[in-house]
Design a protein that fits this description.
The chain has 6 helices and 3 strands; from the N terminus they run αααβααβαβ. With about 130 residues, the protein is an alpha+beta fold. The chain has 2 domains: about 5-35; about 55-125, Ribosomal Protein L30, Chain: A (2-Layer Sandwich), CATH 3.30.1390.10. The radius of gyration is 18 Å and the shape is elongated. The two termini are about 30 Å apart.
């Protein structure tokens, strides 16, 4: 590991959880990326103000099985994500499990799941 990176890791180790959270938000804004992996790093720990019984407010939609109607599933994938090309959609359908959408609200995930299941696919949340 590069010395520069090692120094950064050591500096981050000295931060509180609140400071790390602030750092993650700043990096997301600065570089236009999402750290959607963060909630899964500490399973069983509820966020501040979030009850465990509620379930996650943000989920990842995962295509687990395509079913027999691959063409229909490809059409739905491209409807869900218009930026997805035909080849990319076909690659997703051909190699499940694949994440379809990350860090979305449960309500939106339910709509996506409904569309994909109507096309013959099997979907789950992570």
């Amino acid at each position: 590991m590069a010395e520069k990176v090692q120094k950064l890791v050591e500096a981050i180790e000295g931060l509180t959880l609140t400071e790390v959270n602030d750092l993650v938000k700043l990096l997301e804004e600065k570089f236009g990326v999402s750290a959607s992996f963060a909630p899964t790093m500490m399973p069983g720990v509820a966020s501040a103000g979030q009850e465990k019984e509620e379930g996650p407010s943000k989920v990842n939609v995962v295509l687990t099985e395509t079913g027999a109607t691959k063409i229909q599933v490809i059409k739905v994938l491209r409807e869900i994500n218009p930026e997805l090309g035909l080849k990319e959609a076909k690659d997703i359908v051909d190699t499940p499990p694949q994440v379809i959408k990350e860090g979305i609200k449960k309500e939106e995930a339910d709509k996506i799941k409904e569309k994909l299941e109507a096309a013959g696919a099997k979907v789950e949340y992570k």
